[in-house]
Amino acid sequence: MGIMDILNAAPTNVSRRGFLAGAGSLVLATSLPVRPARGQEASDAPAVQAFMELRADGTVLLKSPWIEGGQGVYTAMAQIVGEELDLSPEHFEVEIAPPGGPFGINGGFRITGGSASTRSSYTLMRRLGASARAMLIEAASAQLGIPAADLTTEPGVVVAPDGTRLGYGELASAAMDLPVPTDVPLRDPETFRYIKAPTPRIDVRAKSTGQASYAIDVTVDDMLLAAIRHAPRLGLAPDAVTNLSEIEAMRGVHSVHMLDGAVAVVANKFWQAQKALAAADITWTEGQAKWPMPADFSSARFRDTLAKASGEVTPVESNGDAASALDSAETVIEATYDAPFVVHGQLEPPSATARMNDDGTLDLWLPNQAPEQFVGRAAEVAGIDGSQVRLHSQILGGFFGRHFLYETANPFPQAIKLAQATGRPVKLIWSREEDFLRDAPRPLGLARFRAAVGPDGPTALNVEVVGEGPTGRWYNAPAGRDPSATEGISGKPYAIANTQIGQLYLQNPAVIGYWRSVGHSMHDFMYEGFLDEIAQAAGLDPFEMRLKMLENSPRHHTLLQRVGDLSGGWQPGPYAVDGVQRARGVAMASPFGSEAATIAEVSLDLGTVKVHNIWTAIDPGQIVNPAVIEAQVQSATALGVSQTLVEELVYENGEPTARNFDMYPILRPDQMPDVHVEIVESGAEMGGVGEPGLPTVGPAIVNAVAQLTGRRVRSLPLSKHDFG
Amino acid sequence: MELTVNGQTHTVDVDEDTPLLWVIREELGLTGTKYGCGIAQCGACTVLVDGVATRSCVTPASVVAGQDIKTIETVEETDVGKRVVEAWVENQVPQCGYCQSGQVLAATALLSETAQPSDEDIEYAMTNLCRCGTYNKIRAAVRQASEA
After folding, report:
1. Where on the tree of life does the source sit, at the highest rank (chain A) (predicted)?
2. Domain ranges for chain B
3. Do B2-73 and B75-147 share a fold?
4. Contact criterion met (CB below 8 Å) for A576 and A690
């Protein structure tokens, strides 16, 4: 079970998606709202005292179940609670809630991911705010001797009929001692002041002045610093450091450690550790790993293996009779699409600080998207009980899926081992090179398409998606029921009379992970690219053909028209701007409960693709902060352009050939298009906003390139194709 | 060696080849300057050396001994720096924020040198990477700070 898929699919009743054996042990993030705080009567009252501290100065400390990593979730939480509490978001301080208690879930399935944070906790946060406001009114009532029903609030103040005003700060302590009321009515959305407003994010000044502190900045008394070098290929183990005594004698070096598949140097300072490690002569031998990388693994060969794979195709979606329709069709087109491994490339390198305490407990400071799961693993590694682990989650210097619990991609198990071995707190930092080596990349993916094409577009579509999704890897989702393996090819809104979509499972030798928008990050590129091929084969305009295929889906039809309007009216081109030919492409996606439509404008510059403009219309159903949505679409667009233009992690001989941003470029400022965003609030159920801006970007660009050059790109990134 | 950082002279006992980045972070305890790649690709480690944006991860500390080194912690002590920070806040530039110390200092160096930069000037000076893709906002903020 992938949390993303669960939350994405059914935020209020995820258990029906439970494809795991023993799904009864899984409690979902959405059960969080009704778990009472310790000491509270078992009721459905929200755990106000656990989540909120009302302070004497009238400000609120709010514990967010979700970690902040740039997506603006702390601000969103402050807006939502503030709306019902009647307190402006600027008076909130937000920090991450600790693991467990009312914040955590049995089995640890609280995750910050799947673009699910706000939508899955929206009602809880509103109820928290509303209940706290009722408690403040109750406290004022007792103090003033006036019935609660006669009191009202203005932002931060309880107001009596006679004009008496009591600030929330004065009432805080009395209010927090009161029982939490249930069934407090929520505000009429028509009267929202903070929700739906472009509220400034509360952490922007600290992040503009170097004051924001991340895991890599953590300092603990008496700590040592550690650097690590992993075996170049997963599955190898360190045999020896042949110049060990020389390394141990280097300045600042405390000790050298042979770990599972790695060698670590612990020193007084990180640079000393790093320098000593660089000087270490390490020999490697075959060792143990859960997923050892074959010594001859090559990503290029793996792509060919996927392309040729045969075997059982597990159905994912079907309607009509695609096989018969394809057999009897006059015009059938087929194509194979692929997308490469890509790294997360979050700018903060992974780190973890571990301290074993005299009483046997463990303190851990680290980046994570799943606190309860990290506690569980940490306890296992340290050989202690989960209750003895204190996890201090730090804000994330970018994540994009990097900080889930992955078998070999997280530094904290090593930090724990080093803290145990040295008897001192240890902060372990992975260099960028080690991050590239042990990241859990987005899997290389491939799909084989066949379509029967009639005069109005496709009459039948058959797609075989070959490979493995991260939800299969990490949550045992079987083929056919692993959305991460097919989403973006499955779940499309277009009306096609006969459709057959299936997954041909083939294990990926790499340790694969979740990457922003997960399966959508590549599958929508494949599907929407092939859809343009169908339009071309039918002699239809790709925009008009999509509109026609969406005639019975008003939400999508509207969205496509809106992005056309946003771009100044659909015009595929080519046309000249300043003497250079440009063209446009269009694509749509339905990721994480939201809908997106994008038009891209491209030209060629010395044989490489230049993206000038991206217009995206996004419909998240209902919104909390339009400024955050706009920022998230900008950000998702940048990652989408980046992976489309330049990103590809290549493996040869079982090792990635790139170990840093020199050999693995990511989007530069001069490659960034102007991004134009329109938010369409359809009123549908609230969807996500962190990921949905990404999936449409690649296919819109690739479709624009085909329009401009006549060349259909079916394999990313564009940088490996010469358009000169 | 002696290093002048944010107007204060510090005596630090480190190997000559220790990168300025790690002296700033580990010897002086100023963590606003970030480690991103270690090979001068990303610019998260940008500091000002005699006013010039400099990637401290590949700059040996010994090379800049005696020069005027400024880190993000004191950026608001100059009018230009203050304007840049205000423009960053007003344009809501940062997302994860990790690269933004470097971005703010790169912009401060640019505007200190060229008060009214052209688009080309901005493109030439603002080369730091941002994985959150805040590039449109960065450009808008640099523009705004230059017009203030």
Report:
1. Bacteria
2. 2-73, 75-147
3. no
4. no
Q: What is the ipTM of this complex?
A: 0.98
Yes or no, beta carbons of B85 and A674 under 8 Å apart: no
Domain B2-73 of CATH type 3.10.180.10: no
Can you tell me the distance from the alpha carbon of A618 to that of A623, in angstroms, rounded to the nearest whole number?
11
Kindly state whether residues A113 and A194 are assigned to the same domain: yes
Regarding whether A614 and A579 lie in a shared domain, the answer is yes
Chain pair A-B, CB pairs under 8 angstroms: 171
Domain boundary among A404, A429, A454: A429
A221 has a chain B CB within 8 A of its CB: no
Determine the distance in angstroms separating the CA of B84 from the nearest CA of chain A, rounded to an integer: 9
CATH of residue A46's domain is 3.30.365.10
Q: Residue B31 corresponds to which tokens in the numbers above?
A: 């963590």
A437 occurs within a structural domain: no
Residue A166 main-chain phi, psi, to 5 deg: -120, 120
Residues A305 and A264 placed together within one structural domain of the fold: no
What would the two tokens of residue A231 be? 């075996």
User: Does B96 reach chain A within 8 Å, measured CB to CB?
Assistant: yes
pLDDT digits over A482-541, tens only? 999 999 999 999 999 999 999 999 999 999 999 999 999 999 999 999 999 999 999 999
CATH class entry, domain B75-147: mainly alpha
- What's the pLDDT score for residue A43? 52
CA of B44: which chain A residue's CA is closest? A347
Given this model, what pLDDT does residue B148 score? 60
Q: Which B residues, 29 through 68, put their C-beta within 8 Å of a C-beta on chain A?
A: 29-39, 41-42, 44
Amino acid at B123: E
Q: Do B37 and A661 touch (CB under 8 A)?
A: yes
Q: Which residue of A has its CA nearest to B87?
A: A208
Q: Give me B22's structure tokens.
A: 């790690």
- Residues of B with Cβ-Cβ distance to A204 under 8 angstroms: 88-89, 92-94
What is the rounded distance in angstroms from the CA atom of residue A258 to the CA atom of residue A244? 11
Residues of chain A with pLDDT below 70 are: 1-43, 104-109
Q: What is the pLDDT of residue A22?
A: 29
pLDDT at residue A104 in the model = 64
Can you name the residues that pair with A545 across neighbouring β-strands? none
Q: What is the pLDDT averaged over residues B128-134?
A: 98
